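User: Reviewer 2 asked us to show a designed sequence for the structure in our supplementary figure. I'm pasting the structure tokens here. Could you produce the per-position amino acids so we can include them in the response letter?
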């Protein structure tokens, strides 16, 4: 018996070549940081420069596996807290938990589109194939579109 097309899992994660900050201004943004909100290296430095808000992020007092956020006009900027200190490394589990926390926030606040870099896969050393699977698993059951930019 043929499968109904409507039953096929939706592909929620799209890959795009290019600068993350060229994404539509209506997309929310996400990237990974540590509990100390140091943002001293990698793409986090650009987020710090563009959006500031370190005091506000620290006051949210989010722990590993949670998500902090800033509001930028109508969109959100998500700071996935994947490790304790900037010098630590995240685990797939801490990344998954913070993405689930972001998903909860998106669902509660009507966020339909989030753009991000290949999170966890630069300085933090995770493997993109595994992170991509985690993203697909989490977001395939939702209406939230994830766009991943890579240079
Ligand atoms: N001592 C420190 O302060 C320290 C140490 C390690 C990591 N970090 C930083 O790096 C951690 C995150 O690591 P990560 O691997 O998730 O991120 P990342 O290494 O900053 O970047 C992830 C990926 O995004 C790519 N990228 C960079 N700029 C752009 C752009 N404009 N558009 C699209 N892609 C781009 C980059 O090449 C990499 O493949 C955070 O904890 C952050 O604070 C800081």
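Assistant: Here is a per-position design you can include in the supplement:
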């Amino acid at each position: 018996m043929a499968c109904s097309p409507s039953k096929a899992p939706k592909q929620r994660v799209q890959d795009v070549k290019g600068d993350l900050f060229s994404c539509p201004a209506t997309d929310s943004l996400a990237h990974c940081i540590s509990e100390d909100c140091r943002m001293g290296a990698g793409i986090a430095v650009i987020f710090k420069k563009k959006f500031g808000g370190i005091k506000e992020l620290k006051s949210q007092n989010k722990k590993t596996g949670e998500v902090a956020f800033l509001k930028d006009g109508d969109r959100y900027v998500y700071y996935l807290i994947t490790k304790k200190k900037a010098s630590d490394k995240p685990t797939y589990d801490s990344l998954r938990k913070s993405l689930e926390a972001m998903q909860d926030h998106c669902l509660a606040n009507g966020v339909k589109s989030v753009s991000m870099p290949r999170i966890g896969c630069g300085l933090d050393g995770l493997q993109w194939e595994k992170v991509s699977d985690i993203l697909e698993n989490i977001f395939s059951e939702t209406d939230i579109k994830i766009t991943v930019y890579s240079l």
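For the response letter, you might also mention the following. The radius of gyration is 15 Å. Residues 19-21, 32-34, 38-44, 86-87, 117-124, 149-151 surround alpha-Diphosphopyridine nucleotide (CB under 6 Å).
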